[in-house]
Amino acid sequence: MNQLQILEVASLYLRKLKEQGLSVEYSTDFEAVPEDAREFERNFQMPGFDVSRVDHTEKTAFWLYLKDGDQRIGGAAAMLQDIGRENFIQYQKRISRHHFPNRSGAALDWVAPPLGEKLSGRLAYIGELTFQPGRRGKRDRLASFMRLLQVLAITQWNVDWVYAFIPERHIQARLDLVYGFTQSLSAAQKWTTPEPKLRCSTEWWVGAPRSELEHILQADLLRANVL
Fold first, then answer.
1. Are the CB atoms for 83 and 161 separated by under 8 Å?
2. What total number of domains does the chain contain?
3. d(CA 48, CA 126)
4. Which position among 101, 112, 176, 195 has the lowest Cβ density within 10 Å, counted as fewest Cβ atoms?
5. Could you read off the pLDDT tens digit of each residue along the chain, which spans 227 residues?
6. DSSP class of residue 96?
7. Which residues, 6 or more positions from 111, have their beta carbon under 8 angstroms from its beta carbon?
8. Residue 27: CB atoms within 10 Å
9. CATH, residue 211
10. What's the superkingdom here (predicted)?
11. In three state form, how does the secondary structure of 154-218 look?
12. What is the extent of the structural domain holding 207?
């Protein structure tokens, strides 16, 4: 996609949200993250997004909030992981050892081999998805919000992949498709016992390479122009 098409599809998602009386807020005010999270009754951040442990800059992370008037009703974050040629499995094991310390030394027993085979280069990791109770709304609202977040990751970081780890119940509800991901993998990683409180070995990996993500964005744009 060229820059004009990317701008057009971003405008499309913004318009869809506006038609529902909603807007978005982009933030790189990292000092405010813990207080912002408490608006959603969330008293923690995942280690990679925990600003007390990771020194993010405007070039490595951002938060996107969904707003109804002046009230934030939902939010998510994206983080750049520029791993270059490093094997994703080794990268994941290395950072998990620091993010989730375990008495055995290793936080992960293993990571699914297909992830090591496919993931490299510049990755956008998406997390911190949360909503006010009862404010998640319909699937089209969630789709527009999440795809807008992915568009921002593409334009800012020129990423090769966008990915996340999500609970199995989200897969059962096919929210991976709503989020805009094109690929999924069960048994993505096995945590060392005892598992971290915030993670579990039943999580699925979901992701999309840049080419497939752009295909979805172009299809959304084409559909909107036809309608």
1. no
2. 1
3. 10
4. 101
5. 888 999 999 999 999 999 999 999 999 999 988 888 888 878 788 888 988 888 899 999 999 999 999 999 999 999 999 999 999 999 999 999 989 988 888 899 999 999 999 999 999 999 999 988 777 768 889 999 999 999 999 999 999 999 999 999 999 999 999 999 999 999 999 999 989 888 999 999 999 999 999 999 999 999 888 65
6. H
7. 88, 89, 92, 93, 188, 189
8. 15
9. 3.40.630.30
10. Bacteria
11. HHHHCCCEEEEEECHHHHHCCHHHHCCCCEEECCCEEECCCCCCCCCCCCEEEEEEHHHHHHHHH
12. 3-226
Strands 121-131 and 161-166: parallel
The pLDDT score that the predictor gives to residue 158 is: 96
- Show the tokens assigned to 29: 């005010």
pLDDT for res 117: 96
| Torsion sign (Cα): 35, 41, 44, 48 | negative
State residue 119's pLDDT score.
Answer: 97
| Dihedral angle sign, alpha carbons of residues 193, 196, 200, 204 | negative
**What is the per-residue burial (b if ≥16 Cβ within 10 Å, else e) of 140-175?**
ebbbbbbbbbbbbbbeebebbbbbbbbeeebbeeeb
Q: Spell out the residues 6+ positions from residue 87 whose beta carbon is closer than 8 angstroms to its own.
A: 116, 120
Count of C-beta atoms within a 10 Å radius of residue 71: 11
d(CA 145, CA 25): 11
In the sheet that 161-166 helps form, which strands lie side by side, from edge to edge?
22-27, 61-68, 71-84, 121-131, 161-166, 204-209, 183-185
Q: Are 147 and 180 in contact (CB under 8 A)?
A: yes
